[in-house]
Structures are given as structure tokens and as C-alpha cells.
Amino acid sequence: MNTSLLTPKQTAETLGVTIGTLAVWRCTARYPLPFVKIGRRVMYKSSDVEQYINSHVFNDSLQESLS
After folding, report:
1. Which of 11, 33, 54, 66 is the most core-located residue (most Cβ within 10 A)?
2. Per-residue pLDDT averaged across 33-52, rounded?
3. What is the rounded distance in angstroms from the CA atom of residue 5 to the CA atom of residue 20?
4. What phi, psi does 59 have (nearest 5°)?
């Protein structure tokens, strides 16, 4: 199993949010970004972060046609 884990800092930098925002997302389950708990540490699988990003891609031309 080759699972690359990211720290909250790395994940926050990748997503362009703060570490605090990630903490709020975890506590409120506002966004479906899975995380891994290893003892007290919180980590994110890079594949989950990539999937989260890909699920939030929008095509502007589609948005215009819906208006």
C-alpha cells in the first residue's frame, strides 16, 4: 500500500485555505474531505485531496447556460 499522507499545513497550502479552516471543516463536516487520525495527529491522504479538488471543478460555459 503506497499511500502518501499530507500534514494539515501541506493540505491547507494545496487548497489555499488556513489550517484553522481545515479544523472547522473536520468538526462541522461542512465539506467532504476525509482525514486520517494517527494517534493525536491528523493527516490527509493525497488521493483524497486530489479527489476533493477534482470534485469542485466547474465549467463556466455550463454555468452560463444554466442562467
Report:
1. 11
2. 95
3. 19
4. -100, 115
